[in-house]
Amino acid sequence: MVSQIKEWLNEAAGYIQVSLTNKLTVSQKSNRTDLVTNIDEETQAFFIKKINQHYPNDRILAEEKGFDTIDSLKGRVWIIDPIDGTMNFVMEQENFCIMIAIYEDGIGQLGFIYDVMKDELYWGGKNQGVFLNEQRLTPPKDVSLSEGLLGMNAYMYGKNIYAAGEIGHASMGIRVSGCAGVELIAMLKGSHIGYISNLSPWDYAAGLVLLDEFGYQYSNIEGKPLSFAKREYFLAATPTAYTQILNDFIHR
User: Fold this and answer.
1) CA dihedral sign of residues 250, 157, 177, 228
2) Strand partners for 103
3) What sections of the chain are H helices per DSSP?
4) In Å, how far are 18, 33, 34, 159 from 22, measured between CA atoms?
């Protein structure tokens, strides 16, 4: 299955890269900064077609075209973000990812985060480790909030939602990429110690599988399990920083 998914990702990435030279069709969803393109929709349709062909009994949760809700994670469920960071895709033509996760009865089994323009695939699975392309990665150090950089949602930081501004000031600094996949990659590399944002299930599902392998802790911003059912405030960090954020800022 892993090699098969890698083949699908490579095929989808090739299509996306070629499509960047053509005119994109860009539409608004909830507001002018919530964008979707024809490439988002076509990439998702490509993956759904592949899954239906090879795994017809599996279910799918994905961002676009009516696949954005599911009644439960029972059985095997594919969770797909065809282009994570669509605003970056449209405006920058970089700093976006394809993300795919496979869950079985609510437990993450495989996760894939593909930085398309860098041709860097971060992937792994339960008790399998985490890899960058074919290189196995070493788990980052467990460091405190004051010792590292945090990925952060800009609106949360600016409005100090759930003390995000204060948490950012207590860290070495914040970074804002506009792409959950890029932020999760930074944690896997050890260049960021955590990430605070407002995410949907397809934004975090693949990353959680990989974070689990490296011993990171994650939850909603109040420390409760993520719902996989709606957009919610998200917290992931090294165990030490995670505990500090909850105890010193959220639950003080």
Assistant:
1) positive
2) 77, 108
3) 2-19, 38-54, 86-91, 154-159, 164-170, 180-189, 201-213, 239-245
4) 7, 21, 21, 38
Of the candidates 120, 123, 127, the residue with the CA atom closest to the CA atom of residue 136 = 123
pLDDT along the chain (252 residues), means of 10: 97 90 80 85 96 98 91 96 94 96 98 97 96 97 98 97 98 98 98 98 98 98 96 98 98 90
Cα separation values, 224 from 21, 41, 108, 180, Å: 43, 32, 17, 20
In this structure, what token pair is assigned to residue 53? 């062909």
CA distance 207 to 234: 12
DSSP state of 58: -
Backbone φ, ψ for residue 45 (5° rounding): -60, -35
| Single-letter amino acid, residue 132 | L
Global confidence as pTM: 0.95
Residues 6+ apart with CB under 8 A from 250: 162, 163, 221, 222, 223
Query: What are the backbone dihedrals phi and psi of residue 31, each rounded to the nearest 5 degrees, phi first?
Result: -160, 180
